Amino acid sequence: MIGHPFYAVEPWSLRETEIDLDVLGQSESVFALGNGHIGWRGNLDEGEPHGLPGAYLNGVYESRPLPYAEAGYGDPEAGQTVINVTNGKVIRLLVDDAPFDLRYGRVLDHERVLDFRTGLLERRVTWESPMGKRVKVHSSRLVSLVQRSVAAICYEVEAVDTELWVVLQSELVANEALPDGAADPRVAAVLKAPLVPEENSSRTAGGLLVHRTAVSGLRIAAAMDHHIQAPPSLNETVESFEDLARYTVTAVLKPGERLRLIKYVTYGWSQVRSEPAVRAQVEGALAGAVRTGWEGLVDQQRTYLDDFWARADVEVEGDAEIQQAVRFALFHVLQAGARAEHRAIPAKGLTGTGYDGHAFWDTETFVLPMLTYIVPQAAGDALRWRYDTLPLAKERARQLGLKGAAFPWRTITGAECSGYWPAGTAAFHIDADIAAAAVRYVGATGDTDFEKTIGLELLIQTARLWRSLGHHDGQGRFRIDGVTGPDEYSAIADNNVYTNLMAQHNLVSAATVAERYSDRALESGVDAEEVASWRDAAAAMYIPYDDVLGVHPQAEGFTSHEMWDFAGTPPEKYPLLLHFPYFDLYRKQVVKQADLVLAMALRGEAFTDEQKSRNFAYYEALTVRDSSLSACTQAVMAAEVGHLQLAGDYLAEAALMDLDDLQHNTRDGLHVASLAGTWVALVAGLAGMREHEGTLSFKPRLPSGITRLAVNLSLHASRLRVEITANTVTYQLQDGSSLRILHHDEPIDVTADTPITRPIARIPPAPPLHQPPGRAPLRRDAPQ
Amino acid sequence: MIGHPFYAVEPWSLRETEIDLDVLGQSESVFALGNGHIGWRGNLDEGEPHGLPGAYLNGVYESRPLPYAEAGYGDPEAGQTVINVTNGKVIRLLVDDAPFDLRYGRVLDHERVLDFRTGLLERRVTWESPMGKRVKVHSSRLVSLVQRSVAAICYEVEAVDTELWVVLQSELVANEALPDGAADPRVAAVLKAPLVPEENSSRTAGGLLVHRTAVSGLRIAAAMDHHIQAPPSLNETVESFEDLARYTVTAVLKPGERLRLIKYVTYGWSQVRSEPAVRAQVEGALAGAVRTGWEGLVDQQRTYLDDFWARADVEVEGDAEIQQAVRFALFHVLQAGARAEHRAIPAKGLTGTGYDGHAFWDTETFVLPMLTYIVPQAAGDALRWRYDTLPLAKERARQLGLKGAAFPWRTITGAECSGYWPAGTAAFHIDADIAAAAVRYVGATGDTDFEKTIGLELLIQTARLWRSLGHHDGQGRFRIDGVTGPDEYSAIADNNVYTNLMAQHNLVSAATVAERYSDRALESGVDAEEVASWRDAAAAMYIPYDDVLGVHPQAEGFTSHEMWDFAGTPPEKYPLLLHFPYFDLYRKQVVKQADLVLAMALRGEAFTDEQKSRNFAYYEALTVRDSSLSACTQAVMAAEVGHLQLAGDYLAEAALMDLDDLQHNTRDGLHVASLAGTWVALVAGLAGMREHEGTLSFKPRLPSGITRLAVNLSLHASRLRVEITANTVTYQLQDGSSLRILHHDEPIDVTADTPITRPIARIPPAPPLHQPPGRAPLRRDAPQ
Q: Which sites bind substrate (chains A, B) (predicted)?
């Protein structure tokens, strides 16, 4: 790829050795730090140049009206957009009288390293000012995974060859000017100056800003403190204004002499707490951070991550790029979800403003399958967030004339923010995706406290939605008409197979859990009749099938539609949604992202092997992957039906989505679901892992480019390590006593500390497939 | 109905004898005057109080951005909204020092009469000022059907019982303040102060204003002149400002003495002509109007209308309300279309701002079937307007990836202005509706000059659209997927029967006419291969049928959808679109307006009698008539399948739509298509008229409430009079030599001046039908 930064291929870090100011935005996303509560884009310490300045707090948004040329009943009136909160990253440097700014002078050397084991973003740069004065800057930055409200920076500036007068201005900046938004509808609407000042103050080496969002009425506080090590010629001042708090330190540095500044920043926000309360909250957190100190924060971060990697690492041998990419993915998904704690995990995490900062089905369908097996507490918290939003989802269902809960297609708070209902509200599968994630979480953790409270209620309310959304037709089939499945190049279709199969699973799971906790279910008004009506609907669920072609139509009638003119669609016309009207896409056979194929991945038991092969081949030829949510699923099914090389190709596409900026929009934030999809492609794809009624099964097989794959999975009290080579697989239990799994359908009881090794049968070569012209994934013939 | 003005039932006029200021808006619509070029709402002479002030010029609009919460490729960016142009109606009156204003003082008597034969709106009022001074005002107003740019008012004020000082201020007013728009999305967006002043001037007894619209850049001029007859104590002044020109006359009136003012107003507008040119245009027209004089204008109007009624009158005996309503309808449809001359006939005519002043398929499907047989020149002109917009429609087709022309769902200039594509752009049937109107026009007029130019090109471009929109499936059927039919409670469905049948007719007609004028067709690139491909697609057109239920689904799959919960829908939840989301409406069996039933009315030969009866009964139970475009079509098919009483009920609903304000929005303008539908319900319904390949057929039968129905139809050089009683029908040719028609399928050659009378066979009573609960039409048991 041209036009993206070059990163060195290293197993445990992401290293940039040159800086290209034209593609700064992408580097800010991949070098973003966060903990699920705070997100800091990888902006340069001095604030500019930047692609997009960004500091985010999970749940902090501004409301904006959603306009309609022709409004309809039930169209959401208010949207929600993530906003850039007070920027605590800024440390400006004056070298003699020249501002340190990479757009002027000369960069003599540059390096930024994101270390997945330390969790630090380090930067080293040697710069010559326009007047020929040279400085070295070394900064380290962290957003603490242990202290949720805390971020910190260690900043050092050194005079290289002449004595220098340096001034550091360390700031909190609110309402930063943002670059203008692009015309691409996927890019978030940019809101200007959303923060209304409430309070500002400064004290020795520190400062504080409190603001409130104008419409959504959220109170946001940021505080900072500093610790300085410097030559004696020191001079310190503090000052504060409505949108600026500043700590200024001045020093004269002899050649080789360094000024070292530690900056502690804390954040807090609340919808209900008073200004003094929120202020006290950030000042309290600040006291804790200062007490811990920089080295202490660094140590805590390392300890947290050591534990994480011990539980979660994925080892890939034979393809160093994939090895790096999967650790990059694990690290960033951890950052997105680790400390979200009853808040959403947005599609971009807290790394950018793409998709307005909204959370979608991405979380439950792509991110939680990974978090459930490596950071189960974070998966549980994400579902607790959905649970907390049930009142809004019930109200939305009521507005739509439905029972139960209608979860939003896109949201920050839980309120529906989709302004185009055919590809928003109509995508009711989000309900089943949430239900499936809850069932999966309970299956993996055995968390019965969760199951009988959060899980039960989520299942009841989603089952009620399906029961009221579908109906029995004259032939007794349970139909779900007029909804939109995962593929966004179709909409408002009858009996989408993915939706119907997921709804079936939802209804059966709800019935099972409601019967398991019948007393509690009765408290929610669920009696035996209602449970029976769920089982009945599930049993009668209509799954259309095209007997002539011998494939499942994605939805009823799909296979009768005209084929998209793939041959007549040149490469520059992708993504299609930016060059063709929805009307044209919806009525033809063209698939944006895995839909029927995702149904086969998640509800595999509903298809025969023969159907899987035929369906996969049919949809391969139609799927253009204009969504980043497609490649990982295609990797999973390619592996299952025996296209191992293709599975590897799709794995690489998912893995390199952001590192290679494959969708050309990483500048707006990372594709968190595709990052998680890297793990899914390896674990559900190459290791062939499936979960069915709480039991894990594996059908591992590696493509030729990968010689060894080892994954670690948390299961109940156990940790299962699965290590795969070309010819064998070894299952090993690291905690816990015993676990029954399936290896290529053979039951195996894995016991602690007794690795079990099994051979892997060769798979016969599958018949060749084709993708739409120009849309085949890059062949991964020569991995590095 | 409560809350609408009461009108006396009279055969040739609409008379209001009380004024209710709360429902002034409706009266302004029904008393509107126009000629297709100028439209003046029936505002009170003194300007206020008003429901909505309104002066419109056909084609004059302002552009406005169409906002989208989530925009898609091909969404129109600019909307068009009809604007209130310079108001030339205003004549303010000062009685001593009290302004004549019905909100103050006392109205002692009031009458307004719209006379369908004179074309005058007359008003008589006696008013007592708050100071107890009484005046009589008598005004007459016309918008000339003969002099297209001219309107005029004769205004008289008389002192009743004391000597009075009166001041008349006759004005041109631009950028009038308008009432705030309602939340109902069907109400037009109201634009404030859209006119930018360019020129104003005054001269003896006259004045002129020239403005330009800010964004659309249209230049609009209005001029006025006056002629006064008064006592000698006269004092006249003129003045002009940017948005106001005023002629003021002062007089002292003794009891019984009258001041009489004639006001001439002319309008002109242009997108390209210079300010001096447009100014000269209105001043020239003004000179002509003054030369003609008030009495001359009145005489011209009467002569024009005498001719119109001789050709177009419909006589209804036995139901005086229907008699009045059909003449009201004929008069207003004439006003909407008479002098439109290469401009659109909007859904509201020029009577209000409803639907933004846009034209829809209403014109071709409801209005032109009437105009074609009574004012064929106006029907031809409406189609010439479509022809003139072909460049825009071709460009739209190209943008949508289609061939030929994609006519806009809603527009003023011909550019698509629909901001919700599922119920806009996807309603491609507009193309076939236009084609059918062109074929009908040629069949009725024999206008071969039109056929080989306008008609041929319209047919070619619409046929090309269908050929590129549909495709042959694996079974060789020609399918049209993902489009929206007439029923707006369904959208984006496959193989809508109405659409497919109308497209079939379009393709066959295009092939026939292209073969008839093959040299000219070749100039448009149409060769024998292309014509063959049209015939082939038409022959293979897929018309879905539900074998189990024995009915046609409105679109593929429709009859498998869940039934709307009609029993659970209380009356206050209608119209459904204001109380339920589209997602819910689209996926269930509920019909806003005749769709499959319209297909049976317009393509009757494609259905057996048995199918018609079964289909009609099936859709009667689903159709809620939330659209004013439904009742007339249901009247037509009710009559055909033998439900004569029901046909009469639907006829009355169509006929009284505006007079009884049945949709509660007549204030926004008249329902021109429903007015035309009154004629359609009588002629295609009760007289059973159909046109097939140029031949008219009749199957007349009257419901019990109507004892005689006589209609007059223009056909080629002939005029056919059809007079129906309970037991007989008489066909009479009034010009021309001979005409072959079908009477209950029996061919009859009607010759000039030899009436032919035939008996009407009794029809066996049809099995009872039912409509959704609460949605049956009012029974017309006791007509007046």
A: 361-362, 592-593
